Each structure stands twice: as C-alpha cells, then as structure tokens.
Amino acid sequence: MGTLLLNGILSGVILSFLIGPVFFVLLEASIKKGPINAIFIDIGVLISDILYLLLAYFFAQEVLEKLHDNEYVKYIAGAIFIGMGVVAILKRDKPQKKKEINVDEVLDEVDGVKDGVANLPKKFNGKIAIGLILKGIGLNAINPGVLLYWIAACTAATEQLQITEGQMFYYFTTTLSTMFGMDMLKIYFAGKLKSKLNEKTISYISLVIGGIFIFFGILFFFRDI
C-alpha cells in the first residue's frame, strides 16, 4: 500500500507541474481577485478531472474512437481558447494615469463612503462561488488533452504499475489530492505576489495570459487528438 500511495503522490506532483491553461487562470485569479476565487475555480477543475477520470476508466476505447473520428473537436476547443484569450486582453484593467490630488474632492469621496458603507454589496457569496466552480469545470472540460491524459494515466496504472481494479480508487484519490494540494501552494504564493505588484504589472500579466490562451487555441488547430 505504501508503494501505491507513493506512486499516486508522484503522479500528482508531475501532473501539477504540467503547464497548461488552468495554471495561468489560477495565477491570474489569485493575483487579481484573491486566493479564495482561485480556490473555487480549482475546485471546479478537480470536479472536472474526476469526471474525466471516470469517463477514461470506463469508456476509454469508445472515447478515443469518437475523438479520432471527429476532427471538429480540436477546432471547437481551439476557437474557445482563442476567444477566452481575446476577452482576457480586452477586459484587462488598464493602469490609470497619475493625476494631481484635490483635497476637497477626496474629502467629498470620504463622506460619500461613510454614508453609503451600509449599502456596499458583498464581495463574495454562494452565487459567485458556484460561478467560479462552473468556470473551473468548463475550463478543464473544453480541453480534450485532459481526457487523453487520464486515459494514458489509466493505461499506465494497469499495464506499467500493475495496479489492480481494487487499488485504483486509492491510487487516483492520492493523485488528485496531491494535485489539489500543489495547486493550493501555487495559489498561496501567487496571492503573496499581489501586494508587490502595481496596476501596470497586473495589466501586463493579464495581457500575457490572454496571449498564452490564444497560443494554446492555435496549438489545438495543428495537433492531432
């Protein structure tokens, strides 16, 4: 059992260091919106991974045949990623130009804040949490490469590691738990960077991440599934 769990941990660590679209989304969410937002997105990613893992385990052959027979899958996925990249670039927070401070205007704004503080909207609620989870699920679900990875992982577990059906649950539970734990570390350290970044740097990060999404989208067009 010890060897089984060790192999699961190693698989989780390796997968967590594979740089893909999810990594950059978690990075951006943690820096711009805070660690809590990134955590809920990652919960959605985890749910999607579990669903894909079950699909890969029980229907691997059928899934592979469908993917190979349907060339449009990679084009649809690519177009979605390109669209997400364009949106990320266009909606990024652009740095504001510095302007002279007017003391009277500042005092008026302070009074306005005092008067309206009771009516401020909540920054985070259940509806936002569900939306972030769905975002994580969707982000992972539109990437056919994730499903192919889990098919390969199931094949490697049974053929190379000689893991039996009874041991599969413990092996992949350890793998997924390790992945999630590593993501929490990434989110934590990314959140620590927020206080050291200015508006210009954060805007630049959004621009780069948007470009990376466009790159992944174009990559889908030219690679075989």
UniProtKB/TrEMBL annotation:
Subcellular location: Cell membrane
Cellular component, GO annotation: plasma membrane
GO MF: amino acid transmembrane transporter activity
InterPro entries in the cross-refs: LeuE-type
Pfam family, one: LysE
Alphabetical keyword list: Cell membrane, Membrane, Transmembrane, Transmembrane helix
Topology versus the membrane: Multi-pass membrane protein
Source organism, top-level taxon: Bacteria
Annotated TM spans: 6-27, 39-60, 72-90, 132-152, 168-189, 201-222
UniProt name for this protein: LysE family translocator
Organism of provenance: Parvicella tangerina
Lineage: Bacteria, Pseudomonadati, Bacteroidota, Flavobacteriia, Flavobacteriales
